[in-house]
Each structure stands twice: as structure tokens, then as C-alpha cells.
Design goal:
The protein is α+β, with helices and mostly antiparallel strands and 200 residues long. The chain has one domain. The chain contains five helices and six strands. The protein is globular, with a radius of gyration of 17 Å.
Length: 200
């Protein structure tokens, strides 16, 4: 699927194209979008704590701001995504520690939190009839996945799941399972992007 998934928006701007880099967005096609696929914005890096717990708190706070005002359902879902990822790692801690033993203590199981699927609140998904809104979206290998938290109609031509007021843990486990498997190395979400400038 071509186009971008835009997110953190109540409505699409009239004067900016979806490809405009000023809009938060990711390519609609690609592998599973993880918390660490793209670095978080530089604004989140400012004053970032050095410890893991502080960085998780900063990431949770940033994703909460993307949910919009008076959006308790979206905020609860994003919070549940982090809680679920942490619980999944804790449950598999012994196996993860064994798989990381070859790095001689360089990585801890908690570092794999950043491999969790990245929720995109207030998402706009490119569909066959134009952009459509979803409370939450994920980018999976098969394309965008819309998560509907109320009785809004399912977007045409886009995979969707309606969770309503139910807890998302069962859905996340069924859909993403042991999300850290297949990652070559743990990688954080807090890093700077660099642009390579050709000298020719």
C-alpha cells in the first residue's frame, strides 16, 4: 500500500499534503512498525532521563499527548500497550535472559520493550477512497490495521478490529505475541536521526 499513515491529528490539514514532513507520519507499507523503528522526536529527547524507567515514562507521556484532549479511551489503550509489553517481557524473562547471555550483560530483557508494536493514536490511513480516521492504528507486515474503540464504521478497504471498552491485552497477545522474536539486537527509541550529505 502506498502513502503514509498520519497520526496525532483530529483532522487532516487543508493546506499540507500527506507527504509533508511537518506532519507526523510513517510509510503505510513496510515491516511491523515498532516503538524503535523510528526515533521519537527531538522534543522528547530534551532532558531525557538516563535510566530505562525514566525513558519509558517519557515515551508513555509522549504517546499520551498524541491521543488528544478528553480521549480517555485512546489513552487507556496506549497505556495498556505499554503495560502488556512489559508484562510479556516479565513473563518470558528467563528465556530472554538466556538469549541475551552471549552479549555478556550488555543488554537486559527490559531493553526489548522498544521492540513492541508502536500504536499510532488519532491515525489517518490511506484507503481506496481517500484517508480514513482510526482511534489507533498499527502498521503490520500486511498493511495498516485500524483499532476502533467505539461504534464508528469500519474504514473501507482497511483491516480493522473493534475492541470497544474491552481490555486490549488478549488482542495484542493474539496479534503480536512474542514481539521481540526476530529482532537481531535490542535497540532503543531514543536516538538522533542523521542525514548523509553527499560530497559529489
Amino acid at each position: 500500500m502506498s502513502g503514509r499513515i498520519l497520526y496525532g491529528l483530529d483532522r487532516l490539514p487543508r493546506t499540507l499534503a500527506p507527504e509533508d514532513p511537518r506532519l507526523l507520519g510513517v510509510p503505510a507499507a513496510g515491516p511491523l512498525l515498532r516503538l524503535n523503528t523510528e526515533p521519537l522526536p527531538l522534543s522528547v529527547l530534551s532532558g531525557l532521563p538516563a535510566d530505562h524507567a525514566g525513558r519509558v515514562t517519557a515515551a508513555r507521556a509522549w504517546f499520551a499527548t498524541l491521543c488528544g484532549d478528553y480521549a480517555r479511551k485512546r489513552e487507556r489503550f496506549v497505556t495498556a500497550c505499554f503495560d502488556w509489553a512489559e508484562a510479556a517481557i516479565a513473563a518470558a524473562r528467563a528465556d530472554i535472559e538466556a538469549s541475551l547471555a552471549r552479549f555478556d550483560g550488555l543488554f537486559a530483557p527490559e531493553d526489548l520493550l522498544w521492540s513492541a508494536p508502536r500504536p499510532l493514536p488519532r491515525a489517518w490511513l490511506p484507503g481506496p477512497e481517500g484517508y480514513v480516521f482510526a482511534d489507533i492504528a498499527f502498521r503490520t507486515e500486511a498493511g495498516p490495521l485500524a483499532v476502533l474503540l467505539d461504534d464508528a464504521p469500519a474504514p473501507p478497504g482497511i483491516e480493522a478490529v473493534r475492541l470497544g471498552a474491552s481490555a486490549p491485552e488478549a488482542f495484542l497477545t493474539a496479534r503480536f505475541g512474542a514481539f521481540w522474536q526476530g529482532e537481531r539486537l535490542p535497540r532503543g527509541a531514543f536516538r538522533r536521526s542523521y542525514t548523509v550529505i553527499s560530497s559529489t
